[in-house]
Specification:
The structure holds 3 protein chains of 3 kinds.
Chain A: H1 8-29, H2 37-56, H3 64-89
Helix pairs in contact in A: 1-2
Chain B: H1 18-22, H2 27-55, H3 66-85, H4 88-101, H5 110-132, H6 146-150, H7 155-182, H8 195-227, H9 240-274, H10 281-294, H11 310-338, H12 347-370, H13 372-378, H14 382-412, E1 414-415, H15 418-445, H16 459-489, E2 491-492
Antiparallel strand pairs in B: 1-2
Chain C: H1 27-62, H2 64-72, H3 76-101, H4 105-135, H5 150-189, H6 199-223
The chains are: A mainly alpha, B mainly alpha, C mainly alpha.
């Protein structure tokens, strides 16, 4: 049974890269990048995960089917996130006068407010 | 001098002890084990339906209290959805027939197959316990915050039961996917596969991707209920609609789990009983995959009136129209298969005809509901109830019965009475339409669902519906009766009573434990009926 | 060759490898099926965590102040330490699989034991983190206590619900992983694995790496939300 055997050097190099990336993500977290902090942290995590998948899990040397399966998992995860957020993030767009206009508007439980007066 | 002929060894008689069944790794026996549990669940779900329909014969809530009524329709839904519709065709017919159809000795992971049955039974027992200790009243949809905070019924027990059963589905889907990828006989390329196998494959994709989401969602709801974790609790700023998003992310694809395998059955039966190749084989194959994938993109059509953004609703509405297209492709292709076919009027084909008409109605009425403007009026009315029963019963259950009757001779080695079977199919068809067609009208006229009392003007239609339900009950009972009778007194079926193509028909009925003595080699497509006799007796 | 078509059983009928199961034609087919099965299982795990992550995403968008506050309540040194430990365990796991592939049986056992040790270290640290939260009454539910405005307290309960949900589910997977590895290590100790057949080591490795990947995401998502104090 022939599976691809990676040289140990590959594993140690990837481990080193993962350590560096971990240090980077922690350091950058303390720097104020405004709205970019989240995407950067996520991007570094995705990079780390990719290294583990390609080299530790040998996907780089695996069949097309394996690669397709990896891709499928992330695709459907993105469908879940993307389509659900498409609801939440588009609430409150272009509302009629008297309504709130912020994206991500949510229904809150609060004291009853009187209805706006009816248009003549 | 006398010679003794030993009975042929089959998967049934190879060993007789109860332990040999409960510890079996044979996919055929596991299919039968599932058949037993699913049939019990069907009976239970049916009894709850009887309770519902009796209450609804009169406008007043006089048969049971409102609270009890809530429990009746909830338990009906829970048993029918999770313990009948999701597993029935994959775990019963898929388990039995699919490995045979690909020329394999078993599924890829036989012990995991057995495990999936035990997991299923465990989930079933939890839910059964919930039922006998008072039931659940939240609706099978368990919407928060009622389910997570306010309801004082057996939400936890039922939630645990559903959670556990989900793993049975996941294990089955995993097993089937690997089996179809890795255990096909030599020469059996993807495009020579029977369409039932394509359908099972597409279903497995959905089982694997969708089921974990409902598992974690029910888990979150249970944590909220048990420990006060606030994820859906509006009092803490949580969003109950998030539960709906996550719940339906599974439950909409779940309806494709319920319909894709029966569609696969229809392809098998319609080819055999028209003595013709399926029209547009590759379109039908790809449409199964398309349904599986597109089915993941439409779930929020269940949330149209829950307060989601209208822009998002428009997107989901458009996608819900799109998902109808591959189903339509199948329907056109099946119809074209009939054209110039030599139709053979036998019981399995009767169920196919029933399916074609009823699935059509169910599917088209789904488009009504996908229309935003219409859904505002029709949501939570009997129109929705009628729509999904047309698909689930008129489609999925009829497809199941088509498959059960088609493969019964293979599973048991016996033929059932064809005349009884035709009668039962007719009774079910008539009873079904009488039960559910009035519900379209009721919904259109505004009768809300999940109410135990209703306005006087709805009574006539409700009485018709309940009358239809009693005919349905007779039809289903008749099926159980003649099928069980055939086990004792049925004619020997022989290897291929339907003169069908397909590897499963080339071995004896019932099959031997190891299926194929010699691994078959395939060198033609799945439905080469042109090479077979057209005229069958 | 792995196109799913089964080879004929050996016509000369020589003894099959003891690990070959009867419904497979060759050991190769069996190995292909096992690895495909594990990959499909990992897909289900991605979606399983996905539901919790969706809830996390939504509330991070809605309640950034609570997310900032909650994240700052977590100990970044312990979280960072655990991240290093877990990534190291992935290294040792990969080296363990490699040792099995090359027939280095004693080395395999050593790498697997090291992997388990690192995994247990992670769990011990997690235990102390949870204990601290317990002592501070940060477990959501009726005993939750937080000094501050009610709305912040409510939203923090959601944050901590998701913190415990995500890390708890992850820890459960770690426990299962360590248990599986103990069985595999025992099998390796009994010299069951050879370059011809080491499938259980390989698929355990896949599982272990997956659990590592989940943590690679959980660490920044939970511990690094607002370390630059943009929100206070």
């Amino acid at each position: 049974m022939a599976g691809h055997v990676s040289p140990t050097k590959v594993y140690y190099t990837i481990f080193g890269s993962l350590m560096v990336l971990t240090a980077v993500t922690v350091t950058v977290a303390f720097i104020n990048l405004g709205g970019l902090n989240f995407p950067v942290a996520l991007g570094i995590a995705i990079l780390k995960a990719t290294l583990v998948i390609l080299f530790f899990m040998h996907v780089k040397y695996s069949s097309r089917l394996t690669k397709l399966i990896c891709g499928t998992a992330f695709f459907f995860l993105l469908v879940l996130f993307g389509l659900t957020l498409s609801d939440y993030l588009s609430r409150g767009w272009f509302t009629a006068p008297g309504g709130t206009t912020g994206a991500g508007t949510r229904v809150t439980i609060g004291p009853a407010t009187p209805a706006p007066p009816a248009e003549p | 001098m006398t010679t003794t002929v030993l009975p042929r060894v089959t998967y049934v008689n190879v060993r007789h002890s109860v332990a040999s069944w409960l510890l079996t790794k044979d996919h055929k026996r596991i299919g039968i084990l599932y058949l037993i549990v699913v049939s019990i669940a069907f009976l239970l779900g049916g009894i709850f339906a009887v309770g519902v329909r009796i209450e609804l014969t009169t406008p007043q809530g006089d048969f049971v209290s409102a609270d009890t009524y809530n429990r009746l329709f909830t338990m009906h839904g829970v048993f029918m959805v999770f313990f009948v519709l999701v597993p029935v065709v994959p775990a019963v017919l898929g388990n039995f027939a699919m490995p045979l159809m690909i020329g394999a000795k078993d599924v890829a992971f036989p012990r995991i197959n057995l495990l999936s049955w035990y997991v299923f039974v465990t989930g079933f027992l939890f839910t059964l316990t919930a039922m006998v200790t008072g039931g659940v009243d939240t609706g099978w949809t368990f919407y928060t915050p009622y389910s997570s905070s306010a309801s004082n019924s057996n939400v936890m027990l039922t939630g645990v039961g559903v959670f556990i059963t989900g793993f049975s589905s996941i294990l089955t889907g995993l097993n089937f996917m690997v089996t179809i990828h890795r255990m096909r006989a030599p020469g059996l390329t993807w495009f020579r596969l029977p369409l039932f196998v394509w359908a099972i494959y597409a279903t497995s994709l959905v089982m694997i991707l969708a089921t974990p989401v409902i598992a974690i969602t029910v888990g979150m709801m249970a944590l909220e209920r048990a420990l006060g974790f606030g994820i859906f609790d509006p009092r803490l700023g949580g969003d109950p609609v998030l539960f709906q998003h996550l719940f339906w992310f599974y439950s909409h694809p779940a309806v494709y789990i319920m319909i894709l395998p029966p569609m696969g059955v229809i392809s098998e039966v319609i080819a055999c009983f028209s003595r013709k190749n399926i029209f547009g084989y590759s379109f039908v194959a790809f449409s199964s995959l398309a349904i599986a994938v597109f089915g993941f993109l439409v779930w929020a059509h269940h949330l149209f009136v829950s307060g989601i953004s209208p822009y998002s609703a428009m997107v989901f509405s458009f996608l819900s129209f799109a998902v109808a297209i591959p189903s339509a492709v199948k329907t056109f292709n099946w119809t074209a298969t009939l054209y110039q076919g030599a139709i053979w009027w036998r019981a399995p084909m009767m169920w196919v005809f029933g399916f074609l008409g009823l699935f059509l109605v169910g599917g088209l009425t789904g488009l009504f509901l996908a229309s935003l403007g219409l859904d505002v009026h029709l949501h939570d009315t009997y129109f929705v109830v009628a729509h999904f029963h047309y698909i689930m019963v008129g489609g999925a259950i009829m497809g199941y019965f088509a498959g059960l009757h088609y493969w019964w001779p293979k599973m048991t080695g016996k033929m059932f009475s064809n005349s009884m079977a035709m009668l039962a199919a007719l009774l079910v068809f008539v009873g079904f339409n009488l039960t559910f067609f009035p519900q379209f009208i009721l919904g259109y006229l505004g009768m809300p669902r999940r109410y135990h009392a209703y306005s006087e003007e709805f009574q006539v239609l409700n009485v018709l519906s309940s009358a239809g339900a009693s005919i349905l009950a007779v039809g289903y009972s008749l099926i159980a009766a003649y099928l069980l009778y055939s086990l004792w007194r049925g004619e020997e079926a022989g290897a291929n009573p339907w003169k069908a193509t397909g590897l499963e028909w080339q071995i004896e009925s019932p099959p031997p434990p190891d299926n194929f003595a010699v691994t078959p080699i395939v060198n033609e497509g799945a439905y080469e009926y042109s090479k077979r006799e057209i005229k069958v007796v | 060759m792995s196109n799913g078509l089964a080879a004929h059983a050996d016509p000369h009928g020589h003894a099959h490898h003891p690990a070959l199961q009867h419904h497979f034609q060759t050991l190769d087919q069996q190995h292909e099926a096992a690895t495909l099965g594990m990959w499909v299982f990992l897909v289900t795990e991605v979606m399983f965590f996905g539901g919790l992550l969706m809830a996390y995403l939504l509330y991070r968008v809605w309640y950034p102040e609570a997310w900032s506050e909650g994240s700052l309540e977590l100990d970044i040194r312990l979280g960072g330490f655990n991240t290093v430990v877990l990534i190291a365990s992935s290294l040792t796991m990969a080296l363990g699989v490699r040792a099995a592939q090359t027939g280095a049986q004693r080395t395999t056992v050593r790498w697997l034991l090291l992997t388990m040790a690192l995994g247990l270290t992670f769990l011990v640290v997690k235990f102390f983190e949870y204990k601290e939260k317990w002592d501070l009454n940060h477990i959501p539910g009726p005993n939750f206590v937080f000094e501050g405005p009610q709305e912040m307290s409510d939203h923090l309960q959601i944050f901590f619900s998701l913190y415990f949900g995500l890390t708890g589910l992850h820890a459960l997977h770690m426990v299962i992983g360590v248990s599986i590895l103990s069985v595999i290590t025992w099998m390796a100790h009994r010299r069951r694995f050879t370059p011809e057949w080491y499938t259980p080591v390989e698929i355990s490795g896949l599982y272990w790496h997956f659990v590592d990947i989940v943590w690679i995401f959980l660490f920044p998502l939970l511990y690094l939300v607002d370390r630059a104090h943009q929100l206070g």
